[in-house]
Amino acid sequence: MRLKALFLMAVLALVSFVSGTPWAQCPEDPNDLGECDTINVVCWDCAIDTSEPGPYFVRLLFLVTHDSNTFWWETENKWVQDSIATFVTPLEWTRTNPSAYCSASSYWNTVEFLGPPAERSVFRHLTDEETGDTLMLNRMMWMQWQFQGWEWDTRLVDASTDPPYFHMGLIPTNPADRRWWEGERTLLATFTLKISDTMHVYIDSSLWPPSNHLTFTRHDAVVYFPRHNLPLAMWVGPPRIVVTSPNGGESWGVGETYDITWLSENFEGDDVKLEFSTDAGVSWMTIAEATINDGVYPWVIPDTTSDSCRVKVSDAEDGDPYDISDSDFSITLPPDFLIDAVPDTQWVKQGDTTAFEVILTSLHGFNSPCTLTVTGLPPLTVGEFDPDVISPTDTSALGIVIDTLTPLGIYPLTITATELAKQVEHSTETFLIVVSALNFKPTISVPESMVAYAGLNADFTVVATDADTSDTLTITKDGVGEFPCTPKVSPNVCYFWWTTEDQDTLNSPYEVIFVVDDGRDSTDTGIVQITVLPYNIPPSGTEGDANGDGAVDIGDIIFLINYLFLEGPPPNPPAAGDINGDCFIGISDLIWLINYIYLEGPPPQIRCLPGDVNYDGNVNLLDPIYFIDYLLFGGPAPVSMRSTDVNADCFINVVDLVYLISYLLRGGPAPQPGCVEPKGGPETAPSGAIAEVGFSDPGYDRESRTMELPVYASFNVPVAGVALSVTWDPEKLSFLEPLSTSRSEGLGLYYSLKRGKLTMGILDIQGANVMEPGTGPIVTLRFVPEDRNNIDLKSIQIEKATFINTQAQELLLRTMK
């Protein structure tokens, strides 16, 4: 039998030689004889134990698989056995976690064979650290020992470039040298990394000269490209599972099949457990107690609709490791539809007609025809749909004719769409308000009077309302200022603004007349008297005297309220408003001043204006001159050291002088609030003093067509003052006067309004009332939506919020969604 086998091999070899075709060829590279050769990079000890202190040694193994084939070598005129003569392995490696230490030094990756155990050589054997037993034999090391005097030309480049690379060439020094024979996943080399923390390491073939790609060379010097497992991402860290789908944002339909997918890194468990949650991970339901750990599981979605779904994949044996979807995904219902009617409320007079638009919206591909019906119509009223059968994405008009004798009142209407085949139906509710045929007079609301300072803005809202809410209200203006106003039904909210100038003080006061017309010969008039005062605030003579009248009293509180919230002029100089000496002017200065005047609080501090060395309220070339006199010639010391320490290094020296000159003459960085004494003003809020602010659910009043949006706040200490800045899209929303809540009762609301922006302060100017700790609305904002069926609440944003406690300290802030 042995002779027959040898004979058969000889015949096959002869046929191969005669035909000129090798014994076999790899389909990817014909120069690779026989089965395709491969080189694989694997991580020997990536599953590090992070409970042990680093650094950690991670060894990457280069494993070669090669099958030996006999072929005719024409240059030597003889049969030879196929083997690998040369390896070229140019590799790049990168990593995540750039803040962690990662090294591939030549010390741990020497190309010397050294001697047993050769623990630092790239050609060492892998041994058990405790027993010393050989776990994996390195082919190169073995050949070195077996064939003394036969050498390979080896090169290894240290990984010091960006990106780092590992280049190893193994080339025989003469044709008589040994060759690489048959072997399956035989160890070629070991590359050692030394790291300090967990990370991913990415290995890929590089283009580093002098080679181009990872190559093998046959015994007869023919080059070919082996198969490989690159690029490769290796997790260096404890065993873990990573959920990849669903990982947040997906929408999966009930009854449909989707793949749950995951990665297992350094985790070799046979089975995993699959669970899902419909409450963002609070509770879990089992999908599969144990399924093979192959990274994918087809899941038929159960009838558990939710927008807060998560999936968990864990070790089926003990639950560790595990991973959960990063964020919520949705489980939705099968194809369905929605019905809506616009507007949601219609006002109609006795003897008149009106209409609603009925809209069907498809969900998940629903497109069946539906019949339309309406219930709840008033007596002596006729309602008809045109058309009365529609499919989703189509619309119909519900026309209603009101009799002259139809009773007055509010009538809820129920409009229903019924799918013809399966009788699936959905309804929406609208309101029909029947009013008298008599015409009601519109009313207009404007401020009686206001004061503006020359060079500053005077602005306010003008609101027109009418009980006949189907009437279109047109508002006109006579007098100074700008007043763009589009005719609308009630309520119509428009904005007036006027940028005053110095010469406007000569003819002050001014009368601005507003007239609203309902288009049916009914009007109303509002008159606003605007007084323009010169902007001549006297300079402040002492700390706390914001209005420059020489006294520190309630007048300064009112002056700062006007400046911060009511478009009033700034103090003279502006830094005179820095009551607490923290280099900023805000509501904390107001509370500090109220505490001082009414509650025996500390006196106003030395004001701060960074760079104002000579304390004149300005930053100019006089300040470095004053500074030089102080530093070099024994001149008077600066009044405010916080203003003088312009580089905020807590020292007053020539460095601050150079910094200030650079700012004034060379465009250098602006002066900073210093950190040296005196340290008046609020420090960091006391431990636990945190405020949270956001919007709570809005409400909508159909009769007045007004949306109310409470500003919701939570804090754990008494709050003496709040400053708010709120913005919105003025093309979609008009603003009405805000309302106090039970929490802000007894405090004043001070605000100025620009188109699309509100600036507000909430405080008691005498310090007698505060907002107690707790949770709930602190003020209610009111808006009139342009389109009441498409209100974009995301356009309303709290741009800035400041909460001040009774010690004039600012609370830490969190913004709630």
In the CATH hierarchy, the architecture of the largest domain is Sandwich
- CATH level 3 topology of the largest domain: Immunoglobulin-like
- Total E-strand runs: 54
- List the domain count as a whole number: 5
Number of helices: 7
Helix content: under 10%
Q: Largest sheet at a glance?
A: 7 strands, antiparallel
Can you identify the CATH class of the largest domain?
Answer: Mainly Beta
Low-confidence stretches: 1-23, 678-684
Question: How would you describe this protein?
Answer:
- This protein is mainly beta.
- The protein folds into five domains: 21-236, Immunoglobulin-like (Sandwich), CATH 2.60.40.680; 240-332, Immunoglobulins (Immunoglobulin-like), CATH 2.60.40.10; 336-435, Immunoglobulin-like (Sandwich), CATH 2.60.40.10; 443-533, Immunoglobulin-like, CATH 2.60.40; 690-815, Immunoglobulin-like (Sandwich), CATH 2.60.40.680.
- 10% of the residues lie in helices and 42% in strands.
- The chain is built from seven helices and 54 strands.
- The strands form 13 sheets. Strands 7, 11, 12, 14, 15, 16 and 18 form a seven-stranded antiparallel beta sheet that branches. Strands 20, 22, 23, 25, 26 and 27 form a six-stranded mixed beta sheet that branches. Strands 45, 46, 47, 49, 52 and 54 form a six-stranded mixed beta sheet that branches.
- The longest helix has 18 residues, at 2-19.
- The radius of gyration is 41 Å and the shape is flat.
- Mean pLDDT is 85; it is low at 1-23 and 678-684.
